[in-house]
Amino acid sequence: MSRRLNLVSKHLGQNLTENFKKSSLVTPYVQDPITFLHLDQLLPAEINSRRAQLRANLETNLAPFVAEWYEKAESPGILAEKFRSLGITGLSDEKYGCKKISLMEKSLILYELARIDCSLATFYVVMFSLTAHTIEELGTEEQKVKYLPKLCNLDMIGCWGLTEPDFGSDASALETTATPVKGGYVLNGVKRWIGNAILSDIMIIFARNITTNHVEGFIVNSKSNGVSVENIQRKLALRIVQNGNIFLKDVFVPANERLGKGHTFATGANEILEHSRMNIAWLAAGLIAGIYENSIKYIRERVQFRAPLASFQLNQEKLVRILAIYQAVFLMGWRVTNLLKQGKANVAQASLVKGWCTLVGREAAKLGRELMGGNGILIDNYVMKALVDMEVIYTYEGTYDICALIAGRAATGVTAFKPGYKA
């Protein structure tokens, strides 16, 4: 959009997207919201240093391409190569030829990626918080040796298939089936909204074993007979991520590709979701950081009524609300990450943090959009892109409502998921 506007404006002798009248403000200001309450001091010095290095690399190697990729709604072939060059891939332990990425460092990687673009962070979540983490936690030793080195080096792309057309929030009721046969299982069903599906080499597919009635996980070769993928078109958010529908028709999966552990929904898929939901709070924090940084730069530079927008009381109040939301979201993400590291976190805590952080993240995004006025709708100005992306993370990995009910169950001791209505 910005290139089209520039092309038109050149005929008028102007550059409408860049050369608006700028103020001459030179006063010091808080550029990075993490410094306001010195939250960076909560982070181990070595990890914080690597975070700063990653930010610089992202600004140079990925940020310049985001607007074009987002506008075209494409996941470019060079994405894996660029991620590989950043040196941010790994596992929770240094094994299988993969370097160690601690929970806190992974969280901050996601934070910095989302600050540039939430699609990039989502790609990382699918690869390492879902696909690789599932194999690391639930896979057999044979499966770990076979898949983890390739996933860590991005020589192999993975996707994670749980949700279905008729089962999103009620994922444990999924209808995809796994029928035991000689030498393995036959899978039938459909999965929907699966990130990286069309790019994937392997799929983690959760299906109901028709013998035990339990939900189990399977590693499926994306090129197996009976597997087909349809890319979901016309998305208005997370446009760099490719989401797909996966169709499984009599797909044979060898017995040794059934995940070695987690042969129920509670001990399998739900355990992975506990980990990944905690990650989503960091996506919200990264988006809010980007919203704040772009907004404050804009209102300091933009002149209206012969004064910079930053000099108006209403604008300062909106910016401070964004700043306050950021502090709370960062602190909640930091706390639940440390609890998970100590082995003290549970799915209720992860759900509370994920749900609330994305809820208030929506407010921050709307405020940033208001501060930029009409210019806020441009991809290059970040805030509108952040607003629609925040709407998605508010929903995925457990909607706000489901996350609230999980936390509510823990708080009250009463389950409230199912209404009393009977068909």
Descriptors:
seven-stranded mixed β-sheet; globular; ACX4-like; FAD; 9 strands; flavoprotein; 13% strand; AcylCoA_DH/oxidase_NM_dom_sf; alpha+beta
Strand content: 5-15%
Radius of gyration: 22 Å
What is the mean pLDDT?
A: 91
Largest sheet: 7 strands, mixed
Poorly predicted runs of 5 or more residues: 7-17
Structural class: alpha+beta
Q: Which descriptor suits the 3D outline?
A: globular
Total beta strands: 9
So how many helices? 12
Q: Tell me the helix content.
A: 40-55%
N-to-C SSE series?
Answer: HHHHHHHEEEEEEEHEEHHHH
What is the end-to-end distance?
49 Å
Describe the protein's architecture and organization.
The structure is a single chain. The chain is an alpha+beta fold and 423 residues long. The protein is 48% helix and 13% strand. The protein has helices at 2-10, 45-61, 63-72, 79-86, 103-116, 118-138, 141-152, 269-301, 313-341, 347-372, 383-393, 400-412, and strands at residues 158-161, 177-181, 184-195, 202-209, 215-221, 227-231, 243-254, 303-304, 307-308. The strands form 2 sheets. Strands 1, 2, 3, 4, 5, 6 and 7 form a 7-stranded mixed β-sheet that branches. The chain has a two-stranded antiparallel ribbon with strand order 8-9. A hairpin with a 2-residue loop joins strand 8 and strand 9 (307-308). Helix 6 packs antiparallel against helix 7 (141-152), helix 10 packs antiparallel against helix 11 and helix 10 crosses helix 12 (400-412). The longest helix has 33 residues, at 269-301. The chain is globular, with a radius of gyration of 22 Å. It starts with a helix and ends in an 11-residue tail after the last helix. Mean pLDDT is 91; it is low at 7-17. GO terms for molecular function: acyl-CoA dehydrogenase activity; flavin adenine dinucleotide binding. Residues 50-153 form the Acyl-CoA dehydrogenase/oxidase N-terminal domain. One of its GO terms (cellular component) is peroxisome. InterPro entries: ACX4-like, Acyl-CoA_DH_CS, Acyl-CoA_Oxase/DH_mid-dom, Acyl-CoA_Oxase/DH_mid-dom_sf, AcylCo_DH-like_C, AcylCo_DH/oxidase_C, AcylCoA_DH/ox_N, AcylCoA_DH/ox_N_sf.
